[in-house]
Amino acid sequence: MEFQSVDDLKKLNKNKKLIKKLAKKYDAFLASEALIKQIPRLLGPGLHKVGKFPTPVSHNDSLTDKANEIRSTIKFQLKKVLCLGVAIGHVGMTEDELISNIMLSVNFLVSLLKKHWQNVKSLYLKSSMGKPHRLF
């Protein structure tokens, strides 16, 4: 796991191109609770705009547990398009784990919508190389 000090962040000097490059390089960021308040001052709004603002880590949290938690979370980015694709598992998972992930993600997505199930026209499940299967 790579890290950067406050001095390294100051060297970026709110340079939009460097901050964008940093945001593209990593999927997520972790920061200590003490440092989380300084990040907007050091980097500006760059990380927040791309949706990668750091997750706070307290001094008594385990870094490996927090990193695994971030790896296992998914983001639903609801935009103006009427279609949404989300990864809910991988090949090494058991059937039960996949089913629980599907149920959890579908129920969470429906809870985000204004009219809940009335906003959902259809749901499809698709593997990377397989045919899509209609669920709803």
TrEMBL record:
Gene3D superfamilies: 3.40.50.790
Keywords: Ribonucleoprotein, Ribosomal protein
CDD domains according to UniProt: Ribosomal_L1
InterPro entries (UniProt xref): eL8/uL1-like, Ribosomal_uL1-like, Ribosomal_uL1/biogenesis, Ribosomal_uL1_3-a/b-sand, Ribosomal_uL1_CS
Molecular functions (GO terms): RNA binding
Entry GO terms, CC: ribonucleoprotein complex; ribosome
Keyword Ribonucleoprotein (UniProt): yes
Domain of life, per lineage: Eukaryota
Protein family: Belongs to the universal ribosomal protein uL1 family.
PANTHER family per record: RIBOSOMAL PROTEIN L7AE FAMILY MEMBER
Name of this protein: Ribosomal protein
Gene that encodes the chain: PARPA_04764.1 scaffold 15639
